[in-house]
Design a protein that fits this description.
Layout: E1 10-11, E2 21-24, H1 28-33, E3 40-41, H2 47-59, H3 62-85, E4 94-97, H4 103-115, E5 120-122, H5 125-139, E6 145-150, H6 157-166, E7 170-172, H7 174-178, H8 196-209, E8 215-219, E9 224-225, E10 228-229, H9 232-240, E11 243-247, H10 250-260, H11 268-276, H12 279-282, H13 284-295, H14 299-322, E12 330-333, H15 339-351
Parallel strand pairs: 1-5, 2-3, 2-4, 4-5, 6-8, 6-11, 7-8, 11-12
Antiparallel strand pairs: 9-10
Length: 352
């Protein structure tokens, strides 16, 4: 499985599908930030142990660090064998990786191979994987064809994407991947955004799954979704694509947002804090008026004011600047934004 002159226990990213399991031996913190999709975390050094070994390496000597590290690694590998892998058959083929394909993954690969398993070490480790992600995200988005769903805030763009997905369309839902609704009030309850690297890994996994011969439906996002950056080649492709525009009356948008953001109505303190962050943009008098609506729980009036005074002007400015094909876009009228109308619109779009 390896090239002549290279590590006989080595394997490359191109061979990922040849293995029964992918094992990430980095620390839990490294794994949480990002990892190869489908990998399991079996650290040979936990977060504290890695710090301890690293400190010894810098402050005492590499020799002392290696002694302590080797004992910890051996102990942790033994525990993984006893608790996680004891029942694996002789023909089990795991791929093992660490940060750069060095000592951590090398130790586990050698021990597993000595047991009799067909273990291999990923050449270059996670670092090689990240290079691949960056390279693919630079080129892959431009090889797909998109239809961009546009419309002001509250017009049901994400809901239409969900309806398109349910009807069999290829859908790229960036807000779902980013765990954020993309606006100043877009933070989801009890959900933390992934790291930038994890977002990019999940994004690439989704893009690789698409059929280039079919359209990909995507929302007209900005270059950031919450705190996460959308790769520039993808944003450029989305903005250059043909568009469709959802046209829904203000009352329907208010009604939809009151349902879609219902969880915010139970968090007035958080909502007030978010509105205060818009003071520089809208002035203290406007913010005080909006906050007064929160305190009185005048939710329809608040949502209508936010749409007309904050979201709609920003949307119009952004769309004119970034979407050159907007004027020729097909218009989808939604008098009411509900499941039946969204499903019907999705079916019509796919039929065309």
């Amino acid at each position: 499985m390896s090239s002549p002159g290279k590590n006989p226990l080595g394997a490359t990213l191109a061979q990922l599908d040849q293995f029964d399991e992918i094992i990430d031996v980095r620390t839990p913190a490294e794994f949480a930030e990002d990892h190869i999709p489908g990998a399991i975390n079996c650290p040979v050094l936990d977060d504290d142990e890695r710090i301890r070994v690293g400190t010894l390496y810098k402050q005492v000597s590499p020799f002392e660090a290696n002694k302590v590290g080797a004992a910890l690694v051996a102990r942790n590998i033994a525990r993984h064998i006893e608790t996680l892998f004891h029942a694996r058959p002789k023909n089990w083929k795991p791929l093992i990786y660490c940060w750069r394909g060095g000592k951590r993954s090398g130790a586990m690969t050698i021990i597993f191979s000595q047991i009799g398993w067909q273990a291999r070490q990923l050449e270059g480790g996670y670092k090689t994987y990240r290079h691949m992600v960056n390279a693919e995200l630079d080129s892959l988005p431009q090889r797909l064809r998109y239809l961009t769903v546009c419309g002001p805030t509250g017009s049901g763009k994400s809901a239409l994407l969900q309806a398109l997905h349910a009807a069999g369309g290829q859908v790229l839902d960036l807000e779902q991947l980013a765990r954020h609704k993309g606006s100043v009030l877009g933070q989801l309850p009890d959900a933390q955004q992934p790291s930038q690297k994890m977002f990019e890994s999940q994004l690439l996994l989704q893009l690789l799954d698409f059929d280039p011969a079919r359209l990909v439906y995507v929302e007209s996002e900005s270059s950031k979704v919450g705190s996460l950056r959308v790769p520039r080649p993808l944003i450029d492709s989305i903005r250059a694509a043909p568009c469709i525009v959802i046209d829904a009356p203000l009352a329907a948008r208010v009604d939809f947002l009151l349902r879609d953001y219902a969880y915010l109505l139970t968090q007035p303190d958080w909502l007030l804090d978010r509105l205060q962050r818009l003071t520089e943009l809208h002035g203290r008098q406007t913010i005080e008026r909006w906050c007064g609506l929160v305190e009185r729980q005048a939710w329809p009036e608040l949502v209508g004011a936010l749409l007309q005074e904050h979201y709609d002007p920003a949307y119009i400015k952004s769309m004119k600047h970034h979407f050159a094909r907007l004027e020729s876009a097909q218009v989808i009228k939604l008098p009411q934004i509900d499941t039946a109308q969204l499903a019907d619109s999705a079916r019509q779009l796919l039929a065309r």
